[in-house]
Amino acid sequence: MPKPFTSIVLVLTLLMMIPLALLAKQRVIKGRSPRASLVWDMDNQDKVKTQKANAMFADGRGMRLPPEGTVARDDVVGNPGLTEGMVDGVWVEAFPVPVDEALLTRGRERFEIYCAVCHGYSGEGDGMINKRANSLMEGTWVPPTNLVSDAVVARPVGHLYNTIRRGIRNMPPYAAQIPVDDRWAIVSYVRALQLSRGAATVSDLSAEDRVALGAAAE
Ligand code: HEC
User: What's the gap in Å between 155 CA and the centre of ligand 1?
Assistant: First the structure.
């Protein structure tokens, strides 16, 4: 073969490989824009993007609210004592769920996940976040309430439930993280902490336990 011809073929072959190399590179590089793809499949579809207008609806809003009266599939309806901790504007005083060992165990677990960071494992308000906030000495920190204080002991269980559900003053709500049953489980555990910290008297014990402790029977 004549020499110039070989060179031309070689150069052309190399040039032909550039687009392929670029395509191959597109498949692997990381970037903010979507990858180039030859076969689009479902990569690109018409969709309503967050906060964007949508002419299909009369009010032009792309993001729709659920229709009035919509309830989640597992929502309890018509039992405000259970779901709101309040009946006819009055906080419930008695637990709307059976309080047993399983509830307390669950309550302890959830309390230690969600509440102890601020209120401390004993509920006295000395959690890690409180310690850290104090060490920063910014002067703006509202300390988590001592949950075994007389003020909180005096709160009806419905009020404690509502504090978890909706938050209170500087404390944020935990309804999104903690479902109804777990809120009551936590309330039962808070009550147990209070009892263990002095709110209990000998008369709260069963006759057997009193004997076991050697306490005088009443
Ligand atoms: C991020 C920190 C933080 C977490 C987590 C937190 N709390 Fe609080 N809580 C606070 C603060 C702060 C206050 C006091 C708010 C105020 O007085 O402004 C408070 C107050 C309270 C009170 C007293 C309300 C009253 O009647 O005055 C209760 C009860 C309570 N929290 C229960 C809980 C329970 C139960 C959990 C777990 C589900 C929890 N908290 C998780 C920070 C927290």
Answer: 13
